[in-house]
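step: validate -> pass
step: tokenize input -> pass
step: predict -> running
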Amino acid sequence: MSKAKLYASSGEFKSEIELPADFFGIEPNEIAIYLAVKAILNNRRQGTAHSKNKSSVSGGGRKPWKQKGTGQARAGQNTSPIWVRGNKAHGPKKHKYFEKVNKKVKRLAFRSALSSRAKDSCVGLFETFNFAAPKTKEFLTITGKAGFEQKNVLFIAASEEKNLVHSLSNVPWARWAWVKDVNTYDIIRARHIILSQDALKSLTDGGLKR
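step: predict -> pass
step: emit ->
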């Protein structure tokens, strides 16, 4: 059973609690994580890179000079890839990189990523993120007291924790994601995962449907 340290809203350590085994206690499946992350990154690609082929380049038609007798290399047209302003041979073309992942694999990858972080004791819980207003200074004080400052942290925020999101938006070592939007890649690229008890409840209630 995986455990996580529980912190008060002030950042003081309180106790250790057990994490839900369905999300944080399974054996990580590295193949599922690889497939999910590869699909996420491929689906972010625009696929708009495009180079001109021989028919798209301006010029061509007339032979630049006669075949023999000039002392120069043979040339058939000025749109050749070896000419300046010629076409690009075997260059990139517009296409889609879309990649689909089976839902079961996607869910397994998500829980495997969470379990991997829990296994390394890199998951932290706060009782609540009680920010009356967006305050970066207050955020840094709390995280510094808990020991998460400068540690590549992902904060998974519940829908009502908007002040938390605004408080950390200017902090370079902290990133955030809504509970409903967080994915396997977000979790894998972060060293520490931090969330409140409300966010944990939202994650475990709707996580199996993502």
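step: describe -> Residues 150 and 180 are 26 Å apart (CA to CA).
step: cleanup -> pass
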